Amino acid sequence: MKSKIFLLAISALIFTQCASQKKSTNVKMPTTSSETVNSTYPTEKPENGTIRLVEKQNIFSEENKLNITFVKTIEDSRCPMNARCITAGFATVEVEVMSLHSRPRKFTISTQENKNSFVFGGKKITLTNIYPSNSTDVSFDDLKGKYVVDLKVE
């Protein structure tokens, strides 16, 4: 009798663990103190082949057999949406990628065109978008932990 209860308990535990690892397609957007900045977060789902991650979020892409983590935003010198700038500026993020048969590897990618992608395990990963748009009334320090990226995996 005890072995039946034990097997039932283990089966229930395994089922709940598997159910909790399902890929979530809805990413909850962070909020800032500025409604204008909040309005620049995406409202539509990303296109196929694109993974959307909030800072510090980790996801396993079943399709690509890759574990991808948006570690942090290193820099955001993009021109604020309510300012006039001589140069457009850029944002730089750190991403960690691991396959089923490799150790984790960190990559730094940027919105600069020649630095916006890397190749890992035969897959090209490109930074296609970073949200939110920054503003003169919300500093980089205020946005830390609230950035969202779209990564296209090909």
Task: Please explain how this structure is put together.
This protein has 154 residues and is α+β, with helices and mostly antiparallel strands. The chain is built from 3 helices and 8 strands; from the N terminus they run ααβββββββαβ. It has helices at 2-20, 35-38, 140-143, and strands at residues 50-54, 58-61, 66-76, 91-99, 105-110, 117-120, 123-131, 148-153. Strands 1-8-7-6 form a 4-stranded antiparallel sheet, with no helix packed on it. Strands 2-3-4-5 form a 4-stranded antiparallel sheet, with no helix packed on it. The chain is globular, with a radius of gyration of 19 Å. The chain starts with a helix and ends with a strand. Mean pLDDT is 84; it is low at 11-24.
